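> forwarded from #structure-qc
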């Protein structure tokens, strides 16, 4: 069994962590939906996009 102090400390830390996360600035980027194309067009798009990369920014 854990001591009640330890349990309360864990709860407090979790509340503090959630509060910090809520205070962090966020930016929502809209996702553009493309029209459905036939399978041949999709393959050529994938080949053209091979140099693109995903960037994840953590503030």
């Amino acid at each position: 069994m854990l001591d009640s102090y330890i349990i309360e400390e864990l709860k407090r830390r979790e509340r503090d962590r959630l509060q910090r996360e809520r205070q962090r600035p966020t930016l929502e980027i809209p996702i553009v939906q493309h029209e459905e194309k036939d399978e041949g067009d999709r393959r050529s798009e994938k080949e053209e996009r091979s140099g693109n990369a995903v960037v994840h920014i953590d503030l």
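QC bot note: The chain has a mean pLDDT of 77. The two ends are 38 Å apart (CA to CA).
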